[in-house]
Amino acid sequence: MTGKQSVRRRAGVIVGRFFAIFGLTLLFIIIFLFGLITITFNGPSVSARNLLVSTLMETSAAKFIPRMYFSEEEIQTIMAGNTAVAVNEISDSSMVSVAVKDNPDSNIEPIEIIEIKGSTYNGKLMIVHDPSRVVVSTSGGYGENAKGQTLANLVAKENAVAGVNAGGFADENGMGSGGQPLGLVIKDGVILAGAEVRSCVIGFDRNDTLIVGTMTGYEALERGMRDAVSFGPVFIVNGKRSDIYGTGGGLNPRTCIGQTADGSVLLLTIDGRQATSLGATYGDCIDILQSYGAINAANLDGGSSTSLYYNGEYINVSASVYGPRDLPTAFVVLPEEGGAE
Fold first, then answer.
1. 8 A C-beta contact, residue 312 and residue 254
2. Do 155 and 138 touch, CB atoms closer than 8 A?
3. What is the C-alpha to C-alpha distance for residues 268 and 246, in angstroms, rounded to an integer?
4. Rounded to whole angstroms, how far apart are CA atoms 75 and 81?
5. Which pLDDT tens digits describe the chain residue by residue (341 residues)?
6. Cβ-contact 221, 189 below 8 angstroms
7. CA-CA distance, 193 to 178, in Å (whole number)?
8. Order of strands across the sheet with 308-310?
9. Does a structural domain hold residue 340?
């Protein structure tokens, strides 16, 4: 055997051992995790079981795990007992008076970014004081074979300065292309999807009031809706917070929108599925939004879609391992008149 052959053989043995050790380590990790999941699902703590089930069922790619242990009926029972239930109302626009219209010369910063921290989460809150600047951006051309756009592209499409992901979309096993929205989409007073579907609607009317509630697309237009998407649940309606049951949706990345009585728009993102930020429950999000004065608020699409973009860069930590998701819709923030922030 020549020297070169000997070196190659030793290199091959080293590489083979590396992959063998790596494979065994990965196998042990998988066995450990599934053992931990099995103990949690079958253990004595009902609250721990419910938290894990509701957390996993809010993902697109990991729904199969609870289904390995529970029937669909059992899962639905768990989910129904761990959610948020809103009061049966729709936002009253008379409760909002836009301060920037009443005091156009105020010295308030047009956009504020606030760091948010809790025991299980980190996040960011963007406050936009002029609600007329917040509009829906759409990827367009919706359909089963259509493709969405990244948040950065949706912001650029409107020549905007900021944005967050908005409505839900078909995302089987986490492989959705972002081109098929779920429920209603309204842009500039025109229905682009979901006209007849009764769903949880989140959007702005022509008075720049955030409207949240259950309605069809046609009913939304009758209320003067200019821009809207569908998701949920509703968190706060007319100052009344939703009732939280159990674990309140589990710990996950979150995107939420709210509005204060002075018209300021609250855009909240919570990082999740990370060692330093597991995520937030519905109750956590309601607490944050109420602490900043929200009188109407709702949950937007979260998970790996959660993203916050500002001045040319993403400023949240995404849970997506593949980079920014393609989306059907986003709430974006237009520049101020005169081109300022």
1. no
2. no
3. 22
4. 10
5. 565 556 556 655 565 566 666 665 666 666 666 666 777 777 778 888 888 888 888 887 788 888 888 889 988 888 888 888 888 899 999 999 998 776 666 677 899 999 999 999 999 999 999 999 999 999 988 998 899 999 999 999 999 999 999 999 999 877 889 999 999 999 999 999 999 989 999 999 999 999 999 999 999 999 999 999 999 999 999 999 999 988 888 999 999 999 999 999 999 999 999 999 999 999 999 999 999 999 999 999 999 999 999 999 999 999 998 889 999 999 999 998 755 56
6. yes
7. 14
8. 134-138, 329-333, 162-165, 308-310, 313-314
9. no
* Domain termination residue (choose one: 60, 80, 100): 80
Torsion, CA 104, CA 223, CA 186, CA 188, rounded to 10: -50
Say if residue 92 is in the same domain as residue 25: no
Number of structural domains in the chain? 2
The span from the CA of 94 to the CA of 207, in Å, is 10
211 contacts 174 by C-beta, under 8 angstroms: no
**pTM of the shown model:** 0.86
99, containing H or E segment: helix 99-102
Domain that holds residue 28: 3-80
